[in-house]
Amino acid sequence: MLTKRIIPCLDVDNGRVVKGVGFINLRDAGDPSELAKFYDREGADELIFLDITASSDNRDTMVEVVKEVSEEVFIPLTVGGGIRQVSDVRKMLEAGADKVSLNTAALGDPNLVKESARFFGSQCIVVAIDAKRISDPSNSDSYHNASVNETLKSDGNTIWEVYTHGGRQPTGVDVIKWSREVAELGAGEILLTSMDTDGHESGYDLELLQLVSTSVSIPVIASGGAGNLEHLRQAIEVGRADAVLAASIFHFGTFSISQAKEYLLDRNIPIRPMR
After folding, report:
1. Which of 34, 214, 246, 266 has the greatest CB tally within 10 Å of its CB?
2. In the chain, which stretches have pLDDT less than 70?
3. What topology is assigned to 5-266 in CATH?
């Protein structure tokens, strides 16, 4: 069995790491390069850096901050936010990223995923999906939009809708369908965030996670809702995630990376050993 990964996430806004609840009510969590250095020393398996307002503000990712972060870590670094074209992917890789995360622009032009994977390899391309649960599609913000995918209007069963621009814009696209599409386009990994559970520290959306994980053949990173170490186990064993991403529990000192690894190892979950 492949080892599972523990990945801290640096959500960056205006050059500072922040953490909110449901993508809003942000609070400061520190300096990106200092936190990156800390997590590298702590034994994190990878690190994800997301410029969370680059797309909504219609600006490029903060390249200089990415360079500073990459100089502080010797573990794989994924960078996302404001990546709109293949040249942006190259710029981030040249700045020190090992992988690049696509989100908003990929919805607008799915060919970006295909071309990026073709130029740089699937192992470099992560597609981030921000998902919101909709028990009744008629209540969706995009229900009356003419471009809404028909799967959102077909019945009253629970579905999940893809949101873009840092969780600000509904798309009318079904999460499961989009997950399958990006896998077919060549994405090497999916970063799946539940907007409903994000920041609440009450656990991941296991139903969503399991549905996506069993619908695609590429690794899925669970994101949104970790509040204790048991939540990490549930995401892996119940949600079938290949990696678990967390922010609040690590940023604010609730748990350490070593505590998380020991907890999972004690429950017979294969984890990369501490360096």
Report:
1. 246
2. 1, 19-29, 52-61, 136-157, 275
3. TIM Barrel (3.20.20)
**207: three-class secondary structure by DSSP:** helix
Residues 128 and 104: their CA atoms lie apart, in Å, by 9
Q: How far is it, in rounded angstroms, from Cα 227 to Cα 219?
A: 22
The residues pairing with 27 across neighbouring beta strands, listed in sequence order, are 19
- C-alpha 93/C-alpha 87 separation (Å) is 10
Cα gap 1→120, rounded to integer Å: 27
Buried b (16+ CB within 10 A) or exposed e, 63-79: bebbebbbebbebbbbb
What average pLDDT does the structure give for the chain?
86
| 205 vs 18: CA distance, rounded Å | 22
Q: What is the pLDDT of residue 155?
A: 42
CA distance 42 to 179: 32
pTM tops 0.85, yes or no? yes
Considering 11, 13, 31, 40, which one is annotated as catalytic? Answer: 11
Element (H, E) at 258: helix 257-266
At 58, list the tokens.
């219609």
Residue 261 tokens, joined: 């690894």
Tell me the two tokens of residue 20.
């909110």
β-strand 24-30 against 16-21: which pairing, if any? antiparallel
Q: Give yes or no: 11 in active site.
A: yes
Q: Is 130 part of the annotated catalytic residue set?
A: yes
Task: Please pick, among 13, 130, 174, 205, the residue that the annotation labels catalytic.
Answer: 130
Copy the structure tokens of residue 174. Answer: 């079904």
Compute the residue count for the chain. Answer: 275
